[in-house]
Amino acid sequence: MKKKEGSSYPESKPVDLLHQFEHILEADPLIDEVGFIHPSQFAKLTEEADDATDIPTSECPSFWNRDHKFGVSTLVLLPLYNAAKLAFMAAIGEYKRLGPDVVVSGDGLESEVMKHSRALLLLSPDFGTAWNSRKLIVSKKQDLSIFMDELLLSELVLSYSPKSDHAWSHRRWVIKSVTGKCSTLQEILRKESELVEKIAERSKMNYRAWNHRCWLVSYMTRERVLQELKKSKNWAGLHVADNCCFHYRRQLMLRILKDSSCKQENASAGYAIEIYKLWKEELHWNETLIKQYIGREALWLHRRFLSLCWMKQFVTDVNDVSCNSEQKISISNDFGFFISNELQLLHSCSSVPNSDFDDFKAQATFSASYMLWLTKQSSEFLSKDSEHQEKLTAGNLKTLLSKVCPERSSLWDSLMG
Amino acid sequence: MGELATEKHVQYILSVEKRKDDFISVAMEYLRMNGAYWGLTTLDLLGKLDAIDVDEVVSWIMKCQHESGGFGGNIGHDPHILYTLSAVQVLALFDKLNVLDVEKVTNYIAGLQNEDGSFSGDEWGEVDTRFSYIAICCLSILHHLNKINVEKAVSYIVSCKNLDGGFGCTPGGESHAGQIFCCVGALAITGSLHHIDKDLLGWWLCERQVKAGGLNGRPEKLPDVCYSWWVLSSLIMIDRVHWISKEKLVKFILDCQDTENGGISDRPDDAVDVYHTYFGVAGLSLLEYPGLKAIDPAYALPVDVVNKIFFGR
Ligand SMILES: [Zn+2]
């Protein structure tokens, strides 16, 4: 379905502009993208529309709406914003003056607040008072479909302002509000997760977006967590510099670890094996990426986490005398193998073929500081392994680090004496 | 290396307030209270706060106060803890805390503490370690820390610590230099820095310094002047600032100045704004750049202002 609205002149009165703006939003509830467009781009858009055998819009438009994409001319932003703010402030002022208990649903005042707050938020996405007014009205209704509409508005705002703190926060408010009241929570979480991924594609290393995805983890079932792990792997492999996605995977993995520690008595061996496999696989995959993409900080930081957890999880088990299952013994035997492998990795990554190559220098720095970090964080475990301890003595690492990363010499001096 | 264009920056800050004709600045009016804090603190650090009409600012601030005791970002806007701290900080700059109904403000803040010790930003319940810092900083300035459960507040912050030594918004949130500043600041004010592994956190923080000398806020990100503040103040509070190169950082900040029209940007040659101007100047102050007032790394206020609050002189 294609439709088109628009055609006003920049000299239109602000109130008319606002009405037109709100009318377009009302008439096409499926609008899923908003953008501000310079007037010079309008001509191009109109041309393209003609190619698609559409009715041409009038000249000098303020708005452009096609295929559920909504463009607003940058020329009208200021008067439009002022009109929207004025209308919103008047409506919410009146609403609060009367008090939510007096205002009868459907008498127009509520819908005025909803209409103008939406217009305002599309122009000023972090206008907190406008988000709050919606929370006030929506929480009074307690209607699931109205809550879901809030997710749509937030998504629309995020389509052009992907870092809007309030738009993300509004989603969490909705999810907290419907938790326990709807049977589709896991489905909502799945969609939330997909939305973050979609936005992360356009807005790199978006802290607010990924923070939202991490926040979802505590609401997820174990099955959902495992699916998320599977799904995010592909994305992470394609965005190896994005620490956010790796952090998200860390949260999912920690959640699985936490679940297993709660179920210590029964099925603990089965869980331990599952976690062991999960960690092994992630370590192996991470090593592959490290060798494929030279000098990526996020990959090495991920390895710090994986290795530290691996040691904490499986090395403590070695000293657990009450545990004598064969499976656990085979795990414990892998510890020496693990450390040898890390030393090999260090060796292969720390040679700098040509000192002019920044990537290789970075790789050497990351690998050596990874090893130093690991020895510092797990000295309690390493002290039980005299064979490898020797190879990890600070001396070698210090020589290496001072060579490849002299700018942090005061850190290396402090850490290694 | 260039020098700090003090006069230009003063002119820039004074001019920003008067801009009412472009969409970007008008559509940001909801956080004018934060803007006032950034701009006025910068002027104070530059020694030029006397260019401001105190009564005008104070009366505007008081018009932003809500009956709940909290402050909005502008007149007619809903209260939020973010703007409440800025309002209190600006009043502190002018030594005007006495205009406040302290009970009312501190009740508002204390009322935002949750059962688990965390703080909501306002009545709608979003939780973030930023709000923990704000609550603790604000109550400390107003001498009313006893109104909250400090022990629980601290343990919530500690629960947001990651294996890399950093802190996030909520438990499990990714480490971020801004959040780290908030958590370290809150722990410093409450005398709880022993919860921090200083070597581990210091290591993460000093890895934020990139080749160009600037600091980023997270791994793989570009350097940005505002992190000069977040990272540097944290390093100072945990006594690990000698792990970065101060000279390189000073140079990076100075390179981000608009030496013609004043103001500082996030990176060299980008557009300037008040936010980065404040963080650039505050960062230089932490780096003991000559001619600037010293700033307190935990309260984010000039040291003489903090001394006045706690020692009455
Ligand atoms: Zn910045």
What does this protein look like?
The complex is a heterodimer of chains A (417) and B (313). Chain A is mostly helical and 417 residues long. Chain A contains 19 helices and 3 strands. Chain A has a 3-stranded mixed sheet with strand order 1-3-2. Chain B has one domain (6-311): Glycosyltransferase (Alpha/alpha barrel), CATH 1.50.10. Chain B contains 14 helices and no strands. The relative contact order of chain B is 0.13. The interface between A and B is large, with 52 and 42 residues. The site of zinc ion has 4 residues of chain B, from loops. Chain A: GO terms for molecular function: CAAX-protein geranylgeranyltransferase activity; protein farnesyltransferase activity. Chain A: Keywords: Prenyltransferase, Repeat, Transferase.
Q: Which sequence of SSEs, written as H and E, runs from N to C of chain A? A: HEHEEHHHHHHHHHHHHHHHHH
- The CATH topology name of chain B reads Glycosyltransferase
In oligomeric terms, what are we looking at? heterodimer
Residue share in helices of chain B?
40-55%
Low-confidence stretches of chain A: 1-10, 52-59, 318-324
Major sheet summary line of chain B:
none
| CATH architectural type of chain B | Alpha/alpha barrel
Give the overall shape of chain A.
Answer: elongated
Present as ligands are: zinc ion
The biggest chain-chain interface is: A-B, 52 and 42 residues
Cα distance spanning the termini of chain B: 37 Å
